[in-house]
Amino acid sequence: MSQEQSDKQWMLRALELAKKGVYTTRPNPHVGCVIVQDGLCVGEGFHERAGEAHAEVHALKQAGAQAVGATCYVTLEPCTHYGRTPPCMDALIEARVARVVIATCDVNPLVAGKSAARLREAGIAVTLGVCEAQARDLNASFFRRMQHHRPYVRLKMACSLDGKVALENGASKWITSEAARADVQSWRARACALVTGVQTIIQDNPRLNVRYDDWARYQIPSVSAQAVRSPIRVVLDTSARLTPDYDLFKIPTPIFLLSHQAYACHFPQHVRCLQVPLEPKTQRLCLVAVLELLAQEQINEVLIEAGGTLAGAFWQQGLCDELLLYQAPKILGSQAQNLLSIPSVQSMQDVETLTCIEQCTIGTDIRFRFAIK
């Protein structure tokens, strides 16, 4: 096996390890590490939770003295700064590894190429860019926040074969199968924040929590119920209409209420009321300002579960990165409600073509993932 093939093989293993942290590491990136000596893995690990040991530290601890002269494969450039844990770069130098293979450089300004340079100065060989596309895709949300100062936005929707989301009278329970609804819980669990509009709360009175039992019934998660962190629940409520008696507030995980006006009532301690400016033309909350605020709160990834009006506003303003669509084998008819509330396109040349990045069957439905840009 060539060096190039060997590097790819071990990096793919490191990426598999990194994926174990997708439900638990936020706001940190997902990172995996493998240490190889004489063609054998002598240590491996992944970053599980912010504030706890990074992937390199776990792998070095497992490798012990065998790390001397070994090759370290890591999916993201090792950190160079003191945060809640010491720099992993220093740990690698102290362990006297001979070579470090890095999938992709970190875009965090505190790191951003500094680690690779420092490792070389210490006499350690560094190889960059092995499985880079896979590594960047794994941490697309972290990269989005660091580079563009806004979260990665995934728009989740469910529709019938004829592209409808509810009957003419508004009834929508249930378009999709129980298995598809359980699958949604895994996407909620990996999101940092779940965003919806006030109308959804008033009409459906949802809790917007991760229903772990429903999820576990259809698949075996890689983490326990205790390890899953519920996303921050974010409600866009322009005119401050909500009151504390909705079911949303009965679960004591963090809630952000974003409005332009001040609330006249008092909410439980786990609720933060934040004010956001209006868009002059629509007199609705400025969605760009909403995303910037969430980025400031270290939110990497947002899942939007909203009605056609709010979903359409995010879509029309070009703020969505991905569409997660569940399509059920049902026909609701021409008078049923449409998927998105957006203006009609007047020319086929102006119709946007999405790129399908995943398609699979969930229960009786089909789940699509489309890259929007």
SSE topology sketch:
Blueprint: H1 3-18, E1 32-37, E2 40-46, H2 55-63, E3 71-74, H3 88-95, E4 99-102, H4 114-121, E5 125-128, H5 132-138, H6 140-148, E6 152-159, E7 164-166, H7 178-190, E8 193-197, H8 198-204, H9 212-218, E9 232-236, E10 255-259, E11 271-275, H10 287-296, E12 301-304, H11 308-316, E13 322-327, E14 337-338, E15 355-362, E16 365-371
Parallel strand pairs: 3-4, 4-5, 6-12, 6-13, 8-9, 8-12, 9-10, 10-11
Antiparallel strand pairs: 1-2, 1-3, 7-14, 13-16, 15-16
Helix pairs in contact: 7-9
Structural overview:
The chain is α/β, with parallel strands linked by helices and 373 residues long. The chain starts with a helix and ends with a strand. 28% of the residues lie in helices and 22% in strands. The mean pLDDT is 89. The relative contact order is 0.12.
Put the structure in a nutshell.
By secondary structure, this protein is α/β, with parallel strands linked by helices. The chain has helices at 3-18, 55-63, 88-95, 114-121, 132-138, 140-148, 178-190, 198-204, 212-218, 287-296, 308-316, and strands at 32-37, 40-46, 71-74, 99-102, 125-128, 152-159, 164-166, 193-197, 232-236, 255-259, 271-275, 301-304, 322-327, 337-338, 355-362, 365-371.
Radius of gyration: 23 Å
Number of helices: 11
Q: In order across it, which strands form the biggest sheet? A: 11-10-9-8-12-6-13-16-15
Report the sheet with the most strands, covering strand number, pairing sense and barrel closure. Answer: 9 strands, mixed
Q: N-to-C SSE series? A: HEEHEHEHEHHEEHEHHEEEHEHEEEE
